[in-house]
Amino acid sequence: MQKFTVHEGVAVPLNSANIDTDQIIPKQFLLAVSRKGFGVHLFHDWRYLDDAETQPNPEFNLNKPEFKGATILVARDNFGNGSSREHAPWALMDYGFRAVIAPSFANIFNNNALGNGLLTVKLTEDEVDQIFTELEKHPGEKITIDLEKMTVDCGPLHFTFELDPFRRDCLLKGLDAIALTLEHEDEIRAYEEKMPSFLKGVR
Question: Are 102 and 129 a contacting pair, CB within 8 Å?
Answer without folding.
Answer: no
